Amino acid sequence: MSGEYIILVGGPSMYQWEKYKTYPHDHWWANFIRAARLRTEQLRTELGPGPQDHLARLSAGYEDRAKQEHQDLII
Description:
This protein is an alpha+beta fold. The protein contains 2 helices and 2 strands; from the N terminus they run βαβα. The protein has helices at residues 31-47, 59-69, and strands at residues 4-9, 52-57. A two-stranded parallel sheet has the order 1-2. It starts with a strand and ends in a 6-residue tail after the last helix.
């Protein structure tokens, strides 16, 4: 199968904001990247190696979270 798939990935919230949520989930900054990687693997299994895939992430959330965690999250 030929074609192209683009997977858009959001960014993490600031860790300090999670304490206000009833069900906090963003304890690990790479949650969104991991979910996109898993979905890409599912598509590869279903569609085979033909379609080209691209992963696009929104940088702002990772830039803010990187400052909070004192590490480079955009590699």
